[in-house]
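Regression test attached.
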Amino acid sequence: MQLNATPGLKEINAKSYDLAQFESLYNAIASSLQKYAFYWVKDVESANAIVNDVFVQLWFKNDKPDQIKGYLYQSVKNASLNHLKKEKQLPVSFIDQDELTLIADLTMPLSEVVTESDKLSFLQNTIAQLPQRRQIVFRMFRLEGFSYIEIADLLQISVRTVEDHLGKAMQFIHARAKHLVNEDVTEL
Amino acid sequence: MSLVVVKVQSGMEDKIWNAIVKRLTNTETADSQSLLEQWLTEDESHAQGYQEAKVVWELSALIQPDQPHVSFDQLQPQLIAKTQVKQLNFWKYGIAAALSAAVLLAALFQFSQDKKHNPSEEWVTRKADAGKMIQVNLPDSSKIWLNSGSEIRFHKYFSAQKSRTVQLIGEAYFDVAHDEKHPFVVESGKLTTVVYGTSFSIRAYGNEMNTSVAVNSGKVGVLIADTKEAKVPVMLVANDKLTFNRNQHTFTKLSVTNSEVNAWTAGILTFEQTPLNEVFATISRKFNVQVKADPLKYQECRLTAKFQNKPLKEVLRTLKMVMNLQTKQIDHTVYVEGGTSCSNP
């Protein structure tokens, strides 16, 4: 089992790409960017539209950025803040959903969790139930591979808060997914 | 009192989890390290908890991205469709048209029925509304100038096709990027024009009898459906113009000057023995107005005139002078009456 992989993001740093590469880039990161845009604009439709526009712009950009991941996040951030400016809303107060946990129960019955891929999808479902902001932090760290400082900058929160989110996220995940750890996994 | 105790414990647990995560992410500090070490030795269950957390953390490195809310299929047409579309203000450029020697009125041609349209394929449409001329830059860096009331369609995977096929209704001027491996094909009614890199103009409005292809540079082949030229193309070189009469299924080939081919892209409106009803249709497209005239009354009338960036008022005044037509414009409608008899043109 290969650990510490950032799935789907390996091929992103190509300077130029064809449609197929662009599609895999999109599929690897669009969902995270949509969550990130939603973090700012608090509206699913607007968030989707922002991400859509950023990808269209990237496609037609003559000089492809070196750090596509960072570029995409920064572009989504700028577009989101512009959107808020247009809406004459200031991103000062977030609706704090941190203590609200998604109720949607996608978890499989424990008895069915047998194979490695079952474990992974159980874990994914658990992560999907994390409170929104915590989930973004967790995904940015684990899926996108951003550092604490980068996450703090992108979300405009302190590094300390990033740490808190990660700690609470692990606490949450551990409580729900610790049964995934059986003997043969522990031996890894 | 007990509430306070719970809070302290909860705060303690948060600190422990922060320390665990710091260890997992290799960002431990001296403080977090000593806190964690002490906690781990406190109880066996603590050590087990840390092990569980470690395994889950490592497993979490394998999580896959979620499905985007908007699928790539929805995004993709924009990657081709959003070729820069320059809107040209018509009034600024004046009136524009490169007219073929046109005859009579025509039935609408069934654009969609002519096509062997595969519903599983997706096409992108670009349209120049009445009063607008647009320039479309295709993904292969070919350029198309679309005249008013004209429309082109191309496959959303334009560059990935064996041939670069564009379907046209109306009038367009093409500047085609050279690519021998991918012939550029324009389908316009009965005419199919095959090119490899050249510039030419096609006029195929649904309500006009004639369809024409005029070449500015290079060489093109034109296939004419339902004639003996359906398989063997008529070859056209620079300054050639082919005009196809859809009613009679006949075509003529004649020489034009280079500037005639794309005069309309520069805002020049040319009529040459043009049936008046087609003149009205052209005016309607160019100036985004409705022209109300009795079609039967003017069907024998023809106009030869050239307008260089002239406003509608000027064009109507000329019609009055030349043909004694009385016109009255109310908002977006032009009413036409009177005129000399055209039975002996």
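Expected vs. actual: identical. DSSP finds eight helices and no strands in chain A.
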